[in-house]
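Two proteins were folded this term; both appear here.
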Amino acid sequence: MIRKGRAFKFGDDVSTDAIAPGRYFHLRSNLPELAKHVLEDADPQFASQVRPGDFVVAGRNFGLGSSREHAPTIIKLAGVSAVLAESFARIFFRNAINVGLPAVICDTGSIQAGDELELDLEAGELVNVTRGERQRVTPLPPVMLAILEDGGLLEHIKKHGGLKLEV
C-alpha cells in the first residue's frame, strides 16, 4: 500500500469541529457536499486545493473533540490518502481506520507544506521526497492494514462475512 502526494500542514489540536465545521451540520446526509468544506476552519483553501493522494500532516492530538464519524469520512472523500500526525485522539483514530483512511503516527516536525511524500504502510516507512528524508513510522497492526486494504470496516465485514482478526 504505497501512497504518494503533497503535504498539507496543520498544527496541534485540530478538532473534529475544525475538520467538519458545525455550521454545515445540515449536510451530514450529503457527505460529498460536506467534503467541500473539509478543514475549512483550519485552512480555508484546503478543500479547493487538495488533490487525490495528498496528505494531511499535523502535530499532536489530531481529531480531538466530538466523535463525528463523518470527520474522517470527508477527509477521505476529499481525496486525502492518509493523515500523518504525532498523535491522534483515540476516537478519531478508530473512526479513520473504520472508514478506510490511514491514520499514521510519526514525527511530522520536518515536513513542510507542499513537500512530496511517499508512504509505504506495509513497510512502515515515510519518505519525504522533497527533502530526501526517510523515517520509520509507527506500524499499523495487520488487522488494521487488512481493514484498510478492504476499504474500511464495513467493506471488510462484507468481504469476509464478519471481522477477520487473523491475517
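Next, the second protein.
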Amino acid sequence: MIKYLFLSLFASLLLAGCVNATVEEVRSGATGIGDNEQVVVLGRRHNNGYETEPDFVACVGNSLGSGRDRIAVLPEREFVDTLFPFFEPRTAPLEIRDLPSLMANEMVAARLQQEGVRYLVWLDGSTSTNDQAGSMTCAVSPAGGGCFGFVTWDRESTYEASIWDLETMTSVGKISTDASGTSYMPAVILPVPLIARVQSSACGGMATQLKAFLQAKG
C-alpha cells in the first residue's frame, strides 16, 4: 500500500510546481548602449517601509550582467553609496520630472559620468503568498515518527521596470512581468516540498526583456 501511495505522490510531483509567466513591454523612446556605458537596477523604497525585495533586484541585476549578451551593471549598493545621499529612500527621485533638477547638481552629474551610467532601471513590485489549502499532521512515538498530509499554496509575482535614460533625461519605456504558480507539499512520513519558483521566473523574464530593450537600435 505504501509503495503505491509513494508512486501516486511521485506522479503528482511531476505535474506540480508549474509557473505561468507573462512579460509586456511599452516603448516610449529609442535605446542603445555603448561598450563603456552601464546600467543601474534599483528597487523602489519609501519611508513608510515599502520595499521591492532586494533579492529580486539583485537577481535582475545579476541576470543582466551574465550571458553572451550581457550588459555592464553597476551594483545597486555601490551606486547608492557613491551617490549618497541622493538615492536614499527619502531623497531618491520618484518621477522622471524629478531627474533634471537632480542632474543639475554638478557633483551628481560628474559621478554619473565617471561611472558611465546611462540608464536607471527602477523596479517596483512584490511576491505574495495566498490561498493556502490542506493540512498536515506530524507525530513522534517510541517506534518512530513522521508526517502525513497534503498542503498547497499559491504564489504570485508582479513587477514593473521603469527605464530612465540619463542622456536624454526621459523615460524610454516600461516592462512588466507577472508570474503565478502553485506549490505542493505532500507528506508520507517525510514532507516533500515542490516549490513553484515564481519570483525566479519573473526575474528571468524581466532580465531577458530588459536586455533586448536596452540593446535595441533605433
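The chain has one domain: 2-215. Helices lie at 2-15, 54-64, 76-82, 99-103, 106-115, 198-215. These notes refer to the second protein only.
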